[in-house]
Every structure is written in structure tokens, then in C-alpha cells.
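User: Continuing from earlier, I have the next pair ready.

Assistant: Great, send them over.

User: Here they are, in order.

Assistant: Folding the first of the pair now:
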Amino acid sequence: MSFISDTLARVKPSPTIAMTNKAMELKAAGHDIIGLSAGEPDFDTPDHIKDAACRAIAAGRTKYTAVDGIPELKSAICAKFRRDNGLHYDTSQVTVGTGGKQVLYNALMATLNPGDEVIIPAPYWVSYPDMVTLAGGVPVIVPCTMENGFRLTPEALEAAITPRTKWLIFNSPSNPTGAAYGREDLRALTDVLLRHPHVWVLSDDMYEHLMFDGFEFVTPAQVEPALHDRTLTCNGVSKAYAMTGWRIGYGAGPVSLIRAMRTIQSQSTSNPCSISQYAALAALEGPQDFLTEFRRVFQRRRDLVVGRLNETPGITCPTPQGAFYVYPDISACIGMRSAGGRLIDSDAAFATALLEETGVAVVFGAAFGLSPNFRISYATSDQVLEEACRRIRAFCEGLQ
């Protein structure tokens, strides 16, 4: 009898973390490595947020808090939803977790029974299917092609729904593609969901504030108020506020769901870090003007990377509407050999050869459920991105 749970055999380690770790190991060994695999802004956390954390420490706010968040932070989250999304929640409808990932995981653990199905559009964030599996559910993967802008169509959604469907996981703008849904795109999907009242929506809005070219962010419960009572709207401070390490995410939804999620959290991690909660409070209530500059910089980097990659033989790179990722297609590279003699028979082989031969770390598309592609995070300096794109082009020009 194995000591390790059978459940673990169905779950894969995070490929994004694995690639980031491999790049760090090579860099520590003295190799010239450019890491484009981590989804983490390179900006520092704004000073007023750090100052709030220091004040919390000085005031002795270092004890246990309520299991799923201090009242002040929950009130600020309610205000944020009203201000930014036109959504109205009471503090009893809000939960705060140790990062957005915990909020999603708590929701799935609190609701899924064995055999329950969860629709996941692909490309997807790598953790979605494994979290569903850990919770006893069945991931139902729906491919969303580059021809459709990597967006779920209403026809594909309708076809994926069965009597066992419990959730649709919706992510806009998307990790890994940066694809976003306009109001009409989303209305077409919510019209389908209205016909299937047993299907709930788990909306991951983590990249809400990183939209480009004037693209308007909208979230499902905002577009279709009739879905308000069967939607968990999730967000956090990690990406927009450059607070990845602070580990604060939050969600809002029906009281019965939030109560069940609180029970899960009470028996796992208990409260998020008290100091991080006061920092998140300052993030949500403090100045928001720096977000405009963050967006400007990310849009410039997006344009740089998209332009350089589309000049590279064998690569087609769509222009994303948000987040800080691109998801280029490498169909034309499959079946070729690298200058180092490696057969490029998959996007995983492409990413491995690229790292080992040029020192550029990206994440292969199969990790996100749609191939042959790879993901670049352009959350780094223009200089680094220019050099990375130069190496990628040299690598592709060397394919035979």
C-alpha cells in the first residue's frame, strides 16, 4: 500500500513554477538566463502600501484575525466592487484568502462532489484543472483557438454543458493569452448561462486593471445581473498592485457559498497574514493613479514583444487585450531541428531547447492546454525583452 495518496497521482506540479525554478537553478550555476516564465510584475510595491504595512507592525497588528479577513478590508472590497464594477455586496458576502489561488481552491473544495464537472476554456491558467481534480471534480476542457481570439464561443459553451456541470471558470483578461472579452462577447456567454440555471460562474478577474488600447473591462455578474446570485467574483492585489508576495486574494458571492468557503479555510490555513491585510486595505483605499502608469508601461512592452516575435520566422503572435502575457503560435517550427540538433516535435521540446541553447525561459503551451504555443511574460524591462526576442529570433532562424 502506497504511503502517498492516490489523488496526488492525478495532479501535476505547476509547470510555470517548474520552469521558473529550472531557470533560477541554471542562473545560479552561472548560465546567462533570461526568465520570461513567471507571471510577476517587476515593479516594486507602491510606497504608501509598504508604509501601511509598517504602521500595522508598529501598532501590534500581528495577531490572529477573523478567519477570512478583517472587517475593514472586507468593507474596502465591497467599496471596490461598487466603484469599479457596479456590483453590490455586503461584508458577509466577501472572503479574503492567502492569494487568489486559495479563494478559487476553497470554492471548488466547498462545492464539488465526485463526478461534478467544471468547464475550463483552454488555454487556461495551469492550476485550474488540477484544483478541480483535487476537489473531486472532472475538468471539462473546451479548446479556444487563435482564430477565435482564444475566446470561448457561446456555441462551444452550450455544447460543453451537461446535467453534471457545476461551474464555468471564466478568466478575462486571460492568463496565458491576454485575451479579453468585450461586453457583447460576454453577453453572448451569459445568455447561454441563463438557459442553464444549475451552472455557476467562477470569474477570475485578477488582471482587471491591466487592459490596453482603451478596452473596457467587464465581469459576468456586471453584464448579467441575473447571474449575481450564482457567481463568485474573484480578484486580488497581486498583479495590479505589484503585491505577489503579500498573498492576498478575495472573492464575493452568495452568503451560503462564502460561509462554506470560510469553513474550509478555518480548517486549513485560517486567516491570511494580518500585516498583508492592512497593506491590501491601503492598496484598495489609497491612490489609484499609479495604475495608469503601470498600464502604459505594460502596453509599450506588449507592443515591443508582439512586434519582434511577428518578425521572427516560424512564429505568429496575436496582440492581446490585457494582462502581461503573449501566447505565440509555433506550428511552423514543429518537426524541425534546432542548431543544437534537438528535434522540435512539440512546444515542450521547443521551450526546452530554447532554454538550453539560448538561456531564454518560457512556458510551453501544453501546460496551458493548447498547443503548439508558448507563453512569454513581458513583466520585465524593455532591455531584457529586446535581448530575449533577439535570442528567440536567432534560435528560430537556426531551425532546419
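And the other member of the pair:
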Amino acid sequence: MDASENVSDVPTPTAVHGPVRIESDSLGTREIPADAYWGVHTSRALENFQIAKRPISVYPDLIVALASVKQAAARANLEIGVLDPHKADLIDRACQLIIDGGFHDQFVVGVMQGGAGTSTNMNANEVIANIGLELDGHAKGEYQFLHPIDDVNRSQSTNDTYPTAIKIALTFALSHLLDELALLRDSFARKGEEFRHVLKVGRTQLQDAVPMTLGQEFHGFATTLTEDHARLTETKWLLAEINLGATAIGTGITADPGYAAAACRHLNVITGLNLETAPDLIESTSDAGAFMSFSGSLKRSAIKLSKICNDLRLLSSGPQAGLGEINLPPRQAGSSIMPGKVNPVIPEVVNQIAFSVAGADVTVTMAAEGGQLQLNAFEPVIAHSLLQSITWMTQGFHTLRVNCIDGITANEERLGAMVGSSVVVITALMPHIGYSAAAALAKTALLTGGNVADLVVEANLMSREEVTKLLSPARLSGLESITTSIPVIT
């Protein structure tokens, strides 16, 4: 089975058609579709949590992380001598198939679930057990040969495997996010270089301020994203501390004293990460602070990019009655009633992603606060909120770069006209002609709409050559500094 074969909806357990097998738990028996790799515990979760209508398989990184944890546990249990070598091998091979992209469509429990993630853990245990059974020539459900809990879940609890898997999944997803963020930053930087000679009016509080170049503006966007890349990279350490081996509440009950260290060591080999066992497993099992801090970093990046998208929409507004300084690539018709209208749909969708990320951060905050005593029962919504945010941000970075930034052009003619008729350039001449003369010229330019350079020359305050030099893009934008004393013309 291919990893892309994720189910689009959570199956309804009552709608069982065709051959079935019977599985039982402490609550009774259930009919399970004969071809399903999940079992009775998953079936009950499907009945109880028809909430989001989205299975956990929508987050492939989480499925790979779960399989990685189970594989590390099997290897650790084999190493310390508490799991039969043949069973350990079956579990190891089954997990590798999942890590390689297979059987993801069998992870069917909903992303929203009660029970602190127990349904997700049970789903993983059952799928791995049934894959292992088939590898060994047995039928699905013949758990006397390989048991989902006694063997696949040996030395574990949902309370240590689930949060560990979440942190690994977020680390994997963060890697993809950082790659896309770097590409987006580079796209802005290229535009900064392309527009380095294009002079424009800078604005503060939406009012004309002083001149700058369009290149400086886009270079500033690139710098902002560079800072965000650094801050997000720093969050990796938040996810590196795991509580695998804590079992139920952090005391390590049912696990061998050597299990935690062995499991962490094997997990690092499997994932290629540098994970560490928390020094206080009781604290680590109950505390969700790392998720809250990570969420805050995601929100910071999303909101800052949303501000940039606001700027892009303002700069491209019009095209006739707005600023119209830049042209965004036209992506689709903007109206069903106004012919020819084209909207800034790509920046708009990134804005909406930021709104969602900010909302998810509130959800993570409330879930972290809602934990009680030795466990936080709300990690499923934390996982869903963070994985959805990071997935949407990654895709948002990609579509903004490919469908917008790479195709932006400057409306140089309009920018030149705006700078030429703008009184803001008079600020650059003030040290040479004095404040009073500059103020008088600014008033004249505003009343007549005349070109500032022409007005200065006509007033015999400066020569055309002097004005042209002082009003060059390099001087106006501060790229070329003035280091000599300036005699004021009286």
C-alpha cells in the first residue's frame, strides 16, 4: 500500500459489509472487516469519535513517527531480553513497512479523540500486529502468535509512546517547513536585487514618509524570513526531550530499568534525530510546555508573514485607483459580476492560514493548561492543532513563492511618477537649501502637482546637475552616504 492512499474519511464501524472476523476485548466482541489490519480497539474508537471525519493518516509524519517508536521499543525489548527474538523481528519488519510508506490507510481513528491518545496507540498496535502475523503466515486476528498489547506494546504506555511520537512527527514536519521557508526567503531576496534601482515612496502610518527603493522593501521581507528561520530552527531542542520509558505516569512501571535508555538509543538510530530521555519522567509525562512554546514560534512566523502579505496586497492595490506599485501574477478571475477583476488570492490564503495558526495556538495553550495531575489528557488536540498548523504553513510558503513572489513585477513608470511629484524628496534637499525654502517648495508642489526637482531648479536654488545627483536612488534610499559637511544655501 502506498503512503498516498490515505483515506478521505473515517470509516463507520457499523457499516461492515462482506467477510468479517470476530475480535474481543474486555467489553465484549466485535465484527471486524476481514481485510482490515486494525482491530477491536480501533473499532470502538471509530464508533466513539465520529467527530472530525479526518483520520490520523492525514498526517503521514505522525504515522511514521508511531512506527518508529514501536520499532525502537521492539529492538530495546529484544536487547534487554523481555521479548522473543522471532516476535521482535516480526514487529521490526512490520514497522519498517509502515516507515517506508505502506499501510498508512489503516490508521483510521479520528484526529479528535478522547483518552489521551489511547485510540491512536491501539490503532498502531493492532496494525503492526496484523502485518506481523501475515508476514509469519498467520491470519489477521490470530493474536495468540503475536499480540498487539502483550508484544507490540510491551514496556510501553500510550502516555509515553504517544507524546514521543508527536515530538518526532513535529520534528520531521519542521524540517519540511524550514526547507520551504528558506526557498521563500530566497525568492524575496532575488526580488530585492531585481528591484534595487527602483525608487519609491516609503510610508509610515499609511502616510508618505521618505524615499526608499523597492529593492530595500523586498530585502526587508527577506530579512524578516531569515530571522523566522533562525527562531524556528531553535525550537528543535524543545522537541528533543522525550519521556519514552515513563510508561503510565513516569515511574516506569512494567518496564525494565534498562529499557528507557535502550529505547532512546534505538530511536535515534531509526529516526536520525538526537533525542534525549527526560531527566524527570514524571514531570515530562504531565507537562505540555514544550508544545506550547513550539506553537508560539509557529504563530510568530505565521503572523509576521501575514503582515508581509498585507503589504503585498496594499502595494498591488488598484490597479488604477489604488497604490499599484507592484503587479502580482494574475492567478484567477476575481469576480462573477465584475469582468476583468483579479484579486490577490495567494496572499489572501496565506493571511487565512495565519489566522488559523493563531487560533490553534490558543487551542494548544488551553489544552496545556487543562492537564491534571500526572497526565495531560488533551494531547490529541495539541497534536492535531500543531500538525495542521505546520502542514498548512508549509503549503502556504510554497504557494506564496511559486504562485506569487516569483512572478511579481514592478510598475516602474507609476513609481517614477509618484516619486517625482512627491514632496517627500524635499527632505533630501533640506540640508542644502534650508528648512524654510524646503517647506515653501513642498507647499508649492502640493498645490500645483509640480515636479520637485523642476521647482528647485526654477527657483535658482540648485543646478539641474546638483539636484539630479542628490535625488539619485542611491542617495534618496541611503545606499550612498554623505560624509562631507553640507553648506546650506541661503
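Worth noting for the second one:
The two ends are 84 Å apart (CA to CA). The chain has 18 helices and eight strands.
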